[in-house]
Structures are given as C-alpha cells and as structure tokens.
Amino acid sequence: MKVCDIIEKIFRGVRMLAGRHVIEPGDLSITEIEEICSLAEQIIVDPVSFQDVCRGKILATLFFEPSTRTRLSFEAAMLRLGGSVEGFASPDYTSSTKGETLADTIRVVSSYADVIAMRSPKEGAALLASQFSACPVINAGDGGHYHPTQTLTDLLTIRQLRGSVEGQTIGFCGDLKFGRTVHSLAKAMSRYKGNKFVFISPSELSVPDYIIKGILEPAGIEYKCVDKLDDVIGELDILYMTRVQKERFFNEQDYIRLKDCYILNKEKMAMAKKDMIVLHPLPRVNEIAPEVDNDPRAAYFKQVKYGMFVRMALIAKLTGSI
Question: Is 69 a catalytic residue?
Fold first, then answer.
C-alpha cells in the first residue's frame, strides 16, 4: 500500500472523531487510539505535509494549574499544524478571580475557539467543562484523576521503542495514589493483551483500589504490589517512574518523609534488562539521578517529543481538519 493510501485510510478514521470530547482514555476505543498513534507516526515521518491542516483554527489552552510540558506541547502542536493559540497559564488574571463559574468561562471561550485543552486541580472539572462547551474539550489533567493525552504519549512511545503495546511487563514506581498519569496508563494498558503490572510504592502511596478491584482483577490481569524497586527491576520491560507530588499532600511532614523513597540510579539500572525502557511524565525532581540520562534505556526526553506529535494528531482529529 502506498503512503498516500495509508494516510487517506487514517484520515477517514480521523473524521469520525470530529467534535468529540476526550476526558479520559476510555473515551477512545482501541481502534481510535491506534488511528491516533498511526497518524502521529505519519506526522513524525513527514511533518511538512501536515503544517497547514489546522490553518484558521484556534486552540484555547485553559490552565488553572501550573504546567510546562503539557501546555507548551499543546501550543507547539497547534502551531505546527498551522493553527493559532489563545488562553492562559494561570487563573490569576481571569474572571474566575471575580467569581465567574467554570461553566460560564467555558461558554465564553468555546465561542472563540475550535478546541479547548484544559487543566484543573479539581477532579471532574474537564467533564463538567465538556457539558457546557460548544467545541471539543481535551482534558489536560484534572487533579489526581485522568490525563488522557499523556496516556496517548506513553502508548506512542512504547509503540516506537518497544515495538508493541502488548505483552509488556510494566512497573509503575513512586506516587501511585495521586499520580493521574499512572491511573490513566494502567487503565489503557489493561485493554491490551498479555500485559503484566508491577506496582512499586510505599503503602501510603499505593495504587487505588479502583484500578486493582475495578479493572485488573475482573479482567484476570496479572499484577503484584511491592515496596522495593530492587526486588523487581530485573523483570520489567518498562519502568514508569513518577515523582512524589508535594501539591497532592495535605500534610507536609508526610511529603518530606516519603519524597526520597525511590531514586533510580546507575546501580539500579545495572540490575535491569538491556532493552528495558525508562519512562517518566516529568517534571523530574530527584527520583531519577542525572547520571541515568545518558543510558540508552532512558526514554523520558524522547517521550516529550512524542507527546507533541500525538497531540498534533488528536487536535487534527477533533477539529475535523483531516
């Protein structure tokens, strides 16, 4: 099949998602996820062919919580598609400080934009926004809940570097209680055949029951929970590191006590498989030592770039530009 035929096949699938909201990974079928990732891979190979597909379209980035990678990645994605960007990186200079409701903010912004990417510290905020928006809403993170575009980023990275998202043993390490990226990716990876899960955390930050009891056990998916990375690192195909998030703690003493529990360094990497990959949603604090950055298995900065490409594909889909 010629490249142009492949692209046209992808494009036909893309149009089916025009106008849809993406609040959690479950909003996308496996087929739709594959289409998004395939389109992203086409953009990676030939970005020039996609540089004008969103010309005349506007992305609104509404970030009620600080962000570097996610916000800039969305903005870079839209600009590389030929579109424009408006929005804010902090609610401090918006009418929300005057008491405007989220519903009214969304009604107003969706009158100007063709797609909205929104981050909020409040769980369920993106779902609420979708109920009042005249254009597609993409959840860019809602508290400790979901982060679907990070999940798409992770899946594309795994496809690119491991060759498949099936048959992988993936270890999640660090803050598994509040880490929305962990929750989203665990839920997504559970939909693919042959994957095994290893959850590595202190008991205070263990993965929520709804992941274990609500998703993995009913599906008969193999998993285990441990508190030491050294005991299991040699089993893993993918190690997904996370930081202990200070902003998720109500008690600063608990944060100080737990923040250095797991630090990945050269000694630990020496125990891992030669083809294991290390992922991290970033920002990194000190859970991955800088000495690991030069290890060929360290994939977290490649992951950042894949995130831009997958967001390009998703924006193009939801705006009906392709």
Answer: yes
**Residue 194: which of 172, 220, 217, 218 has the closest Cα?**
220
Of 21, 80, 145, 147, catalytic:
147
SS3 234: helix
**What pTM was estimated for this model as a whole?**
0.88
Q: Is 4 exposed, middle or buried (0-12, 13-18, 19+ CB in 10 A)?
A: exposed
Q: 70 an active-site residue? A: yes
The low-confidence residues of the chain, meaning pLDDT below 70, are 1-15, 245, 247-250, 258-261
Q: Which of 205, 201, 248, 251 is nearest to 229 (CA)?
A: 201
Contact (Cβ atoms closer than 8 angstroms) between residue 51 and residue 80: yes
Catalytic pick among 69, 191, 273, 297: 69
Structure tokens at 39: 């389109």
How high is the mean pLDDT of the chain?
A: 91
| Three-class SS state of 155 | helix
**What is the distance between the terminal CA atoms of the chain, rounded to a whole angstrom?**
20
